[in-house]
Write a structure and sequence with these properties.
Length: 411
Amino acid sequence: MRDGERLAQLEARDSGRLLNDAKAQITFVAEWFNYYAGLADKYTGETISTDQKDMLVYTEPVPVGVVGVIVPWNAPLLLMAWKVAPALAAGCTIVVKPSDYTPTTALAFGELLSESGLPKGAYNVVTGFGPAVGQAITAHPGVNKVAFTGSTATGISVGKSAMTNLTRVTLELGGKSAQIVFEDADIEAAINGIMNGIFIGTGQTCIAGSRLLVHESLHDSLVSELVARARKIRIGSPVDSMTQMGPVVNKIQHDKVLDRIETAKLEGATVECGGGVPPGLEGWFVEPTILTGVRPEMEVAQEEVFGPVLAVMKFRTEDEAIALANNTKYGLAAGVWSQNVHRVHRVARSLRAGTVWINTYRAYSPAAPFGGFGLSGLGRENGIEAMRAYCETKTVWVELAGSTRDPFSIR
Ligand code: NAD
């Protein structure tokens, strides 16, 4: 890919994300554009059958207009692509506001779009701080839709601001996703999924599997295996190809993660590994941390950490596991690990989460809708559903008989 390396370098240096991970995300960006380019001429209206034989009724998707795209720092280019690709396919124009910590890839991507022949003014970037520049977009009467990814607190204020003009809004927000490991799980597969779910991106992913719910019969052995693997994670520079976990994005995030760990300890959690700053490294590093003895009411079981911190809880029965998993204001994702085909579908049906991964975690496709229940968001990105978010539906009625009607009758 011609510009993949440059974009990945920019992304890694801006956000501290692993270069390897950034490279993989750039390939996703290409896939997303490819998918929506293919969908652009297939997303059409329909002819509606009514009981009125002298009428032709059809619908047309109409581009919603100007879309404000506001994205966070954790996966800047990919999360922007999730919005820009369907918005362009729908025929909208775009004003992007990247995070003030990671503005470079949105700008570099603009150069590529110009080179590709996108009409001038179709894609615009304004950089700056959220409360000033972001707010100017969300409250602007000329903006017809806001597509936002970020924290739940900011998302709610974005939603309120957009509503002053009835601006359409989709929100992809925070999460506290549960990974549930039943006694009949393939343990090796589950361990891989759990490690991937919480330690990739240094835990700074909205779908981080930050709560591990494990059957009591497996608890001790699973925790000790996870601890052994967490201790072996190679922490270091994000641009070193041997590194498995880089730093968190900045000091604010570093302080927040350490503060959440301290609160968990004060509330009675046991630190099985990590819990602090790895020795001998300069930068905003946090050790991979596993906490046991977590109770559902603790902060670490309820609030997003957005760092490499796994909160472990035990359960006895399937009902208890479901109740624990659903005991959160969020509802972004969940992982279910079991080899019982009846159970996995039964549990998936009971979970209040926008995505349920069964015997896998963090699988994505441009074709598969993504979004959250509860305080994890509003609306869906990806798939055909995303096109709906960038279109208004126009219904057209055509009189076919050529006759006039009684003006005082509606039939
Ligand atoms: P944030 O909410 O602080 O900022 C997100 C974006 O909003 C930034 O560009 C910021 O400048 C802007 N912003 C801030 N205040 C604003 C305002 N008043 N009006 C308009 N825009 C404003 O989030 P963050 O710290 O950058 O990112 C981390 C959060 O993002 C986490 O909570 C994470 O869960 C969430 N996230 C969600 C998803 C998802 O798809 N659900 C994906 C990635 C990240």
